[in-house]
Amino acid sequence: MVLIPAYNESATLGAIVEQVRALSDHPVAVIDDCSTDSTAAVARAAGAIVLPLSLQLGAWGAIQTGLRFALREGCRMAVTLDADGQHEPEYMQDLLKPILADEADVVIGAYPERASPARRLAWRYFRVLTGFGLEDITSGFRAYNHAAMSILASPEASLLDYQDVGVLLILRRRGLRILEVPVPMRPRTQGISRIFNSWWKVSGYMAQTSLLCVARVGRGRRPSPTGRR
């Protein structure tokens, strides 16, 4: 199942859903995080299943809702991509290949070149704290197998506010294999990042994620193979 968390993304969402449906016969679920525009209507018109949230949960809460729905529907794999048009659906198969070949449990579509100098500095900081050898630890373009979906749908993962470092720490603690695959990415043409749109939010993100890292979540076990193709 293809999962797309969305908040006020009516300008770009319809084309993304249509492109995904044209490329594959996988069901597409849009998790509408209490949008105030026509996001839900646009998604339905494009042929997506719409999961409307009654309470705004943020990007990670929306993805977790989608993962639980996908598991309930009997799906064995899930791909997540953003609704802002930055991720290119034609590369979904590149993310799924290592999972289908049993080379990875989680695959990240990586495009570190998109990052500003400040974001690159933040990634380097988190790589030092976590020990991850990943280039793009905040990418929302990911593929998960059934084991990863089950772990991330659990109440343990509900404690997270963001979909990046904390998620990877939980997966590593459970011994899952994480792999990066280089993908291109388009620049955002509409809207703004929900995290990196103010220094206040960036400060909160850095503080919360640092606390997760310092608490050594995911430590104590031999790290699973992580790398970049």
UniProtKB/TrEMBL annotation:
Pfam families recorded: Glycos_transf_2
InterPro entries: Glyco_trans_2-like (IPR001173), Glycosyltransferase_2 (IPR050256), Nucleotide-diphossugar_trans (IPR029044)
Domain Glycosyltransferase 2-like: 2-126
Source taxon at top rank: Bacteria
Alphabetical list of Gene3D superfamilies matching this protein: Spore Coat Polysaccharide Biosynthesis Protein SpsA, Chain A
Matches recorded under SUPFAM superfamilies: Nucleotide-diphospho-sugar transferases
Xref: PANTHER family: RFBJ PROTEIN, UNDECAPRENYL-PHOSPHATE 4-DEOXY-4-FORMAMIDO-L-ARABINOSE TRANSFERASE-RELATED
Protein's name in the database: Glycosyltransferase 2-like domain-containing protein
Species the sequence originates in: Thiocapsa rosea
